[in-house]
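Record filed below.
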Amino acid sequence: MAAEMVLSHRVPHKVLSEADLEEVAQRKPPAKPSLRGCLRKTRCSASTAKSLLFRFLPFLHWLPRYPVKDWLLGDIASGFSVGIMHLPQGLAYALLAGLPPVTGLYSSFYPVFLYFFFGTSRHNSVEVLVLTLGSLPTPCLSPGPFAVISVMIGSLTDSLAPSEYFLESVNGTNTTIVNEERRDAARVELVATITVLTGIFQVALGLLQFGFVVTYLSDPLVRGYTTAASVHVLVSQLKNVFGVSLGEHSGPLSLFVTFIEICQKLPETNVGTLVTAIIAMVAIFIVKELNHKFAAKLPMPIPIELVTIIISTGISYGVNLNAKFGISVVGNIPSGLKPPVVPKVSCFGQVAGNAFAIAVVGYAICISLGKIFALKHGYKVDSNQELIALGLCNFLGGFFQCFAISCSMSRSLVQESTGGNSQVAGVIASLVILVTILKIGELFRDLPKAILAAIIIVNLKGMFKQFNDLRVLWKSNRVDLMVWIVTFVATLMLNLDIGLGASVVFGLLTVIFRTQLPHYSILGRIADTDVYRDVAEYQMAQEVPGVKIFSSSSTLYFANVELYADALKKKSGINVDRLIEKKKKALKKLKKQQKKAEKEKAKRQKVLPRCRGPLWTPSLPQDAEDRVNGPGVAVIELSGAEDSTPPEPTLRTLGLPQPGFHAIILDFSPVNFVDTVSIKILKNIFRDFREIEVDVFVAGCPVAVLTQLERGNFFSSAITKHCFFPSVHAAMIHISRERHQASVNTQPRC
């Protein structure tokens, strides 16, 4: 009776009969509703239209319930603080992307403002994570330009629109200079196209419920990638720190080529630029450390980056640093907003791969940072809706000359610490940037680029701290450490786009290798319980005499099922294949002996005289019989029961060694799917152990796996569902009962 039970995770204590098993195996999944049926259900429904409107414009849900008295002051203070941070970082990251500074201001304004409408959380300030509607008030993440995304875009502008494409001769001479106006216009058009395509990818992935794609970017992979990207950022800004001009390099090993060129041009360093950058970095670093140390006492962090920009711009304008000391400055920053421009669709095919990489990396950074805040404040992140919101911000922002954005840890922490409660804080921050674009931006034309480089380099401190992961991962998980190192090295050597692809492939390979090399164990029973554990790890677990319980820590599929079979035979303590080979040789030898005996008997009967009567049979003495048949040959006399089948030879009758166990239980509780290859190997396992007179049982097999076995024609007259049990203990009870019954009855076991 116990043999008729089968494991089910949904109903673990229910006993299923043979009829139930057949019904489960033949049960078809419920039919998916047709498009016509869906349209019929949702057609012209006011409630459906309202839910769709709230889904795509979530601010309509939470804005009417906005508690003005409780939240408004906190949102204003938070928005003003974040807006002040956006201003210098927007200018700096535009420089990092190889674009005019004003594009950084655009990228700090439009996406933040758009996320107010499309963001799913009433707490987030632009582009960041998607929270479920109706969640509790929590501080929000702050989107905008991000160093890693900016350097990815910068590598694209250097490779697809390098400065040498825009060289022009001076007054008809052989001297050539770069037409920066044409170059910047071409790069802005290129980046806008990439940003629009990035948004399309993100929206499409979100609508298709592909938000899970980011799960293939493990935390060690993301941290190793961002650390390597920070090295790219650092090297790219050294030219602005030393005040030297470099060629534009892209592709694999471009980082090392750029670094070597910087080292070669160190004698040409502009001392004024270097001194300006060092002073700015020291000042910004010290004040940021003070902000961190006295965060609890300060109402808001000291905006040292904005202060540095204002002071350095004033000094540069008053002293005329560009003319007297050759210190490079930002240049003209046009005021006002520009009309939307349609992207260059013909370039989509050329930049599709890079746009997809930017879409995935930007979303991965966003969702990783969002999960940190979600765990801290107890809310849930909807990955698919966040993809849609982030994609819409990038898609629409691309029409207004923005570059792709992500979220920043520093800005998010400031927004959290200064009392930001809702997306209203994002609107306030965007208004601060808007005022800068309209009226104040043109005042920063004399801002030294060395100051922006200093801001970028100091903000890399948090990413460089990720080198501490090496020590932590060395102690905790060597495979994750390998993923981190390979990602870091691949990104440094192959550049950001190819490095990301190589890192993802390596990360997936580690998963395959882990499933190919799982932990195999023999389980034993803990006395007076129905608990079974690895006998090598638990001293109280003892093997059940005559039964081997085999377990694997991984599922079974084509890549590891043969290793599973080999480990099972090895753990059983007997050379199964060798024993089967010996049995075949013994059977072959026995067959030859029987044929020889039959020939000798036929020959003997020809020699003997004919029978004189029906009951007369001459008898020969033993020595005469030996002379006829030959010594040492056993003759099997066939009696009247010639039609009966002779008993099957056994290992004992063949004189072969017998296994020290009579049954094997395969623990299938870790198995969540099987394929055709694994089904074939499982059949071979049943066949081989049956050859050496060992019964095989399966315990803990999920119903889904049982259904897959049924569809794969696993069951037959030799392998039935009676071999499957809901647990190891249920299989043990059945084996004990069967052995007891066999000892009482003389009948052979089934």
